[in-house]
Every structure is written in C-alpha cells, then in structure tokens.
Amino acid sequence: xxxxxxxxxxxxxxxxxxxxxxxxxxxxxxxxxxxxxxxxxxxxxxxxxxxxxxxxxxxxxxxxxxxxxxxxxxxxxxxxxxxxxxxxxxxxxxxxxxxxxxxxxxxxxxxxxxxxxxxxxxxxxxxxxxxxxxxxxxxxxxxxxxxxxxxxxxxxxxxxxxxxxxxxxxxxxxxxxxxxxxxxxxxxxxxxxxxxxxxxxxxxxxxxxxxxxxxxxxxxxxxxxxxxxxxxxxxxxxxxxxxxxxxxxxxxxxxxxxxxxxxxxxxxxxxxxxxxxxxxxxxxxxxxxxxxxxxxxxxxxxxxxxxxxxxxxxxxxxxxxxxxxxxxxx
Amino acid sequence: xxxxxxxxxxxxxxxxxxxxxxxxxxxxxxxxxxxxxxxxxxxxxxxxxxxxxxxxxxxxxxxxxxxxxxxxxxxxxxxxxxxxxxxxxxxxxxxxxxxxxxxxxxxxxxxxxxxxxxxxxxxxxxxxxxxxxxxxxxxxxxxxxxxxxxxxxxxxxxxxxxxxxxxxxxxxxxxxxxxxxxxxxxxxxxxxxxxxxxxxxxxxxxxxxxxxxxxxxxxxxxxxxxxxxxxxxxxxxxxxxxxxxxxxxxxxxxxxxxxxxxxxxxxxxxxxxxxxxxxxxxxxxxxxxxxxxxxxxxxxxxxxxxxxxxxxxxxx
Lengths: 330, 316
Description:
The structure holds two protein chains of two kinds.
Chain A: H1 2-24, E1 27-32, H2 42-57, E2 62-67, H3 73-86, E3 91-95, H4 100-109, E4 114-118, E5 129-134, H5 136-150, E6 155-160, H6 165-181, E7 186-191, H7 198-210, E8 215-218, H8 224-233, E9 236-241, E10 252-258, H9 261-272, E11 280-283, E12 290-294, H10 302-317, H11 324-329
Parallel strand pairs in A: 1-2, 1-3, 3-4, 4-5, 5-11, 6-7, 6-8, 8-9, 9-10
Antiparallel strand pairs in A: 10-12
Helix pairs in contact in A: 2-9, 5-6, 5-10, 7-8
Chain B: H1 3-6, H2 9-34, H3 42-63, H4 68-96, H5 101-123, H6 147-151, H7 156-174, H8 176-186, H9 188-193, H10 198-224, H11 236-246, H12 251-273, H13 280-298
Helix pairs in contact in B: 2-7, 2-10, 2-11, 2-12, 3-4, 3-5, 3-10, 3-11, 4-5, 4-10, 7-8, 8-10, 11-12, 12-13
C-alpha cells in the first residue's frame, strides 16, 4: 500500500512538474489602461496590439490579462501591485503617463518584475522599467498636410485632451503640417483639460465649426463626441491612435494607428534574454510602429495620394521634421 | 482680437446646450433635497438614463420598426422609467431602510456607473451613433440675427429643460404638493402631525429626481452627442448636486447657476479657439472658480432644508 501511495505521489509530482514546465513557456503580460478597450483611441490601440501579438505567437506561447477603464490612479496602484506581487507576469504594462509615479515605486519594490509605461521617455534610471512613446507628431504632420489641401474655408479645428504627451505632440505636428502647405490657414486648437469629458469635447467641436472650421481632428478617447459633431455637420475628420472609420461614417479621411506590438515584441525578446528594462522605445513611421490609414469611405484623388506618400517618405527619410524645435532641444 | 470675437452668438447658444443636462438633473435634485433627501447618486442615474435611452433608440432605429421621432420618444420614456426606478431604489434605501444618504447615494452612483459600462460592453461594444433629436428650425425666428442662433436653433430637450424651470418653481412654491415637500424637508414632525406622509413625499421627490436625472443623461446620448460611451456624463451629476447648494434650493437660482457655469465653460472654449494667450489649465478651471465666486456674492443665501440628510422616524 505504501509503495502504491509513493508511486502515485511520484506520478503526481511528475505531472505537476510537467504542467509547471509547460506553464513557464508561456509569456504573460498584464496591462492596465485608463479607458475602455473599445474606446477607438489610446486604450484600444494597446488592446489591439496585445491581440495581434497573441495571434502572432499563439495562445500556447502568449497570454495577457487587462484591466481597462482604470482612470482612478489609486485603483491602478492596487491592480499593478497585485500583478507584480503575484509573480505570474513577465511584463506589467501601465498604459498611461498618469501611472508613472506608481510604476517608479513598484519597480523599486519588485526588482525582478519587468514594467513598461508610457507615453513618456523616463525609465527612472531603473533596470526593470521600459518606457515608450509614440511620435504622434509624425501622423499629426501628415494629417495636417492633407487637411491643408482639403479645407475650403481655410479654418481647421483640433480638440485635444491635456496639453502634454502625445496629444500635445500630435497638435504641434498637425499645426506644422498645415503651415507647411499654407501659413494663412487658421489652425484653432482647444485642449479641454480632460481625456474623457465627451460633452465638453463635443461642445469644443461645435465651437470650432461656429468659428468656420470645415475640418476637425483630435486625440484621446473623448473624440467620439467631436466625431459625432463632424458627422452631423458634414465636416471632414482626421483621427489618431486607432482607426475610427466605424464611427466617422463618410466624413473620415485618415487615421494615425499606433502599432504598439512593434515595441512590445522587442521587449518580450529582451525579457526572455534577461534584460528587464532600462530602454526607451518610440513608435515612428520609420519603424512601422505608426501607420497611416485612410478611412474606407474616403476617396482620395491621385494628386492627394501622391502628396501623402511624399510626406510619409519625407518624414521617414528625415527630410521632413514635424517639430523642428523638438529636434533642436534633443 | 476684440470682445466681438469672444462674445459671439454661438457662445451663448453653446452655453444653453451645455446647461441642458445640468438643469434637468439639478432641478430633480432640488425636489429631492427640498424634501430632505440628499441624492449623491445623480451621476449614476444620469449614466443609466443615458445608456438605456440611447440603447432603446439604437435598437429601434436598427430594426426600423418605428419612425425616427417615435424612436426618440421611446428613448426618452425608457430613460425616464429607468431613472425613476433608480430614484425609487435610492428612496427605499434612504427613506425606508434609513441608511446614511451620502453613502447610499455613492452606492447608487457606483451601481449606475458600473452597470451602464457593463451593459454597453455586452450589448453595444464600440461607440456607435444614433439619429438624435434634430435642431428645430422655427419659421422666421431661427433666421433672426443673433437671437435666432442663440434661442431658436436647439433640439426639443433643450426647450423642455428650460420650460421645467418655471414649472418646478411653480410646483414647489404654489401647489399643495410643493407645500408638502417644503414642510417635509423643513419640519417632518410637524408635517407628519398635519397628516402628511413623510415617506410618501420623499419617495415621490426622489423618484422625480431620478426621472429628471435619467432625462439629463438622455439629453446627452440622444440629443446633444447622439452616442454613448463609458462614463459619458464625466461627473456632471456631482456638479448638479453642487449647483443645488449654490442655487439655494430654488429652481430659478439653480438654473441661473447652471447657466453661469455653462456660459463660462462656453466662453473658455471660444477664447481658446480665437487664440487668446491664456494657459489652458487656467481656462479649464475658470468655470468652476468663477461660478463659485459669483454665486457666493450674487445670490441671497438661503438656509438649507433643516431635515436634509436626516432620516425621519416618527416619535424620535
């Protein structure tokens, strides 16, 4: 009886060991996002990237868990700490610049866990923190060039969230793109002070139209309001972060799509090699982390497509610098 | 850039649109608070009204089983019913169970926030738009210079909101029901002694408050924005509660507060559009700061209803 029990125990240990080994082969990411995964903007872009990675690596090799709509930073701290303490995840992503201080604190406490956060450049000088950002000024510049060619009133409007990060970069790039075509075109920019205040963003878009804008653009998850205003007023729309063609009906022109999988795949490879952080990544048109997509209903003329292609080529080659002042600072 | 560039007709029109959900929700909250019930769940009720109103319209327009105006009226009815039910729930917890009103209100808010998000994710998925209440073109009036744009080019719910201000003032000040509400909020023992059912009045006012909060949400999702997204109200319900305090529990001054807040908000948007060199952070906080300062100095201060937040127990 004793023998049978011992053999049974050994078999169980062997099986659990095999399960554990199989378990270890799976790369797991936990990601925290400030808004819903279907916000047609910032959070959706990260969710889409994780889904794309899973499709590429396979479900047996890659798993992810998410917590979306975590706009309360204190709630974010609890989730991030739980993930880090669990030891189940090789990479913990805090997708939002507001989470930076939490990441800095947790990364010091859990030095064997790899963290990634964005959109900012700062890794806090830690070996287990990756930081990332998007050169949204590039897509902004591209959209600005096209907007300048399409406006008839000579007034274009931008609704932004808070005057920082990629929202600010996009706005500056957009304004410079417009000015590169015609400096007389008015670019009216409103930062509403919130990423999620849809009613106020809606009214900002109405204000743009009342002031003569016949083209609108914007960033962050509250742009669903301005898109609805653009549709109602038959005004062209340029988007960023994710494709918005589902909502923009026949007034959408082009969208800057964030392909976070480009940098995440590199981080995964690094972590597998034992490099837990210390690097800053940036999505650009050159590394194909940024992709410009036309709205499926938009019929661009050959001339406009040629201008668009030349703009992308110029940015990729470095002949066009969307925000020259930034380059000088760097 | 001169004053003409800033104080345009469109700014006043924008203020009227922005004020609409605040007026609905703050008037509803005024009824509840005048009877002694502090309902901090207004924002949750607005969210549920916004979602259910939107979803009813969305389904009706997708199925093409009814005309657009009928689908919109259905949306309004659903928002009113759902808001009313949430008001009833709030009344049950705070009046019947005598729970702390502040805590139960926060509970109702979180319930509305969470459930509206969950239902939206499950039933709709990504943000989708509906054909909402169109702006009305009044013969002759809409074409009038300046006043036409300011007053005569809004959707139906905007006019309903503003019409409710004198109606609410009349109900509260000049009807038997209004007298009962005020009596219950001011001195529930005396009202009870006079044969007024304190619980029944508070149930009625909290339900009315819930219905108007639901309608406030619907005014966003099927009239002003015409779509739903998680946390669509962005905390407007809490501002509505504050407006009731600052407006001294009087419908006219509550509405004036809503208009002032919305006007400063519309003004800061216009100032930014015309390119005034003001830090965006300052512009964003301006509506809150100016409204508080103006209301502190401009309105005659009223005492809050004596029995506000106090559950009533006969004989205590």
